[in-house]
């Protein structure tokens, strides 16, 4: 906790878990975080060896912040905290969710017992952010892509990350959820894929 226990530190780490981000991208993902505090947290995380700075190559040359190998090893910690948090009777599923947080949530809530024999590519388009998912051997690997993924087996598109939640975790149809999540691909395969995800039971109050 001395290394990652300061306010905002784990959320900053979460937003870099799928790849390096520019300072402005971190600010946009965490709008309540001031530039001053973000700078301080990045400096501390860099000094402790969790974060490292690098430069993206042209044509989009920019300084970015990414996790070191040791920093990426925090994903299981984030997953356990995620499972623990949603079991709270006070958990509010309507709270804002970043696209990266949604992708990590899917990796966390995947029921690997249901994935036998499934191998497919999935595109996740959340607003202007695009992610490629690869389900293989019981693991869902996800990484950001600059443009929409070409010819995936399934494509899920929505304006915001929260638009995925009623369908993936509430198990209602996209139409019942307000039609904000569009699905492309075989309907039966899409239903089977969505069925792979579930939240743990709530703890009693």
Automatic annotation (TrEMBL):
<dbReference type="InterPro" id="IPR036527">
    <property type="entry name" value="SCP2_sterol-bd_dom_sf"/>
</dbReference>
<dbReference type="InterPro" id="IPR002577">
    <property type="entry name" value="HTH_HxlR"/>
</dbReference>
<dbReference type="Pfam" id="PF01638">
    <property type="entry name" value="HxlR"/>
</dbReference>
<dbReference type="GO" id="GO:0003677">
    <property type="term" value="F:DNA binding"/>
</dbReference>
<keyword id="KW-0805">Transcription regulation</keyword>
<dbReference type="InterPro" id="IPR036390">
    <property type="entry name" value="WH_DNA-bd_sf"/>
</dbReference>
<protein>
    <submittedName>
        <fullName>Transcriptional regulator</fullName>
    </submittedName>
</protein>
<keyword id="KW-0804">Transcription</keyword>
<feature type="domain" description="HTH hxlR-type">
    <location>
        <begin position="1"/>
        <end position="93"/>
    </location>
</feature>
<keyword id="KW-0238">DNA-binding</keyword>
<dbReference type="InterPro" id="IPR036388">
    <property type="entry name" value="WH-like_DNA-bd_sf"/>
</dbReference>
């Amino acid at each position: 906790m001395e290394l990652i226990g300061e306010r905002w530190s784990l959320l900053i780490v979460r937003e870099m878990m799928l790849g390096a981000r520019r300072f402005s991208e971190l600010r946009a993902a965490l709008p309540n975080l001031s530039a001053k505090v973000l700078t301080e947290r990045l400096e501390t995380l860099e000094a402790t060896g969790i974060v490292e700075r690098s430069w993206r190559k042209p044509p989009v040359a920019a300084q970015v912040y990414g996790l070191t190998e040791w920093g990426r090893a925090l994903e299981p910690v984030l997953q356990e905290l995620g499972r623990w948090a949603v079991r709270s009777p006070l958990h509010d599923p309507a709270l804002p969710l970043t696209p990266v947080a949604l992708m990590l949530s899917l990796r966390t809530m995947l029921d690997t017992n249901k994935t036998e024999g499934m191998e497919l590519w999935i595109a996740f388009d959340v607003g202007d952010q695009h992610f490629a998912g690869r389900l293989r051997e019981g693991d869902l690997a996800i990484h950001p892509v600059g443009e929409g993924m070409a010819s995936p087996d399934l494509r899920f598109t929505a304006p915001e990350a929260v638009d995925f939640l009623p369908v993936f975790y509430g198990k209602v149809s996209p139409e019942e959820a307000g039609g904000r999540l569009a699905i492309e691909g075989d309907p039966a395969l899409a239903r089977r894929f969505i069925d792979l995800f579930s939240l743990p039971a709530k703890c009693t109050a």
